[in-house]
Amino acid sequence: xxxxxxxxxxxxxxxxxxxxxxxxxxxxxxxxxxxxxxxxxxxxxxxxxxxxxxxxxxxxxxxxxxxxxxxxxxxxxxxxxxxxxxxxxxxxxxxxxxxxxxxxxxxxxxxxxxxxxxxxxxxxxxxxxxxxxxxxxxxxxx
Length: 142
Known about the structure:
The protein is 75% helix and 0% strand. The chain is built from 5 helices and no strands. α4 (84-110) packs antiparallel against α5 (115-139).
């Protein structure tokens, strides 16, 4: 199968995973996090017909998933690991350290966001990126 097609499939699956995970955590089990500092969050407006927030989120999740999967495919052979799953997890950890973790440390240093909120965002970022690594490894196997 073509690498671009695989990356598109990966992007779609990662977007779906992220929306489901976000719905369970942000919209459900851990919704209280957003009540700790309510003035800093945009209204989700899921039920409002003219709200573009969910569309923008879905599109950005797809674009991220596509780019993530495409880069994974490009560097697959150079990643350590004995199989696709190990390579996917390793790649995800690299992306998380460079992206999410570094960003959350900067957020802690330069903002007044509560440490509990930052910890929550750091942990959910790790889970999301590991999920993306798992999906990319399934989508692309040599």
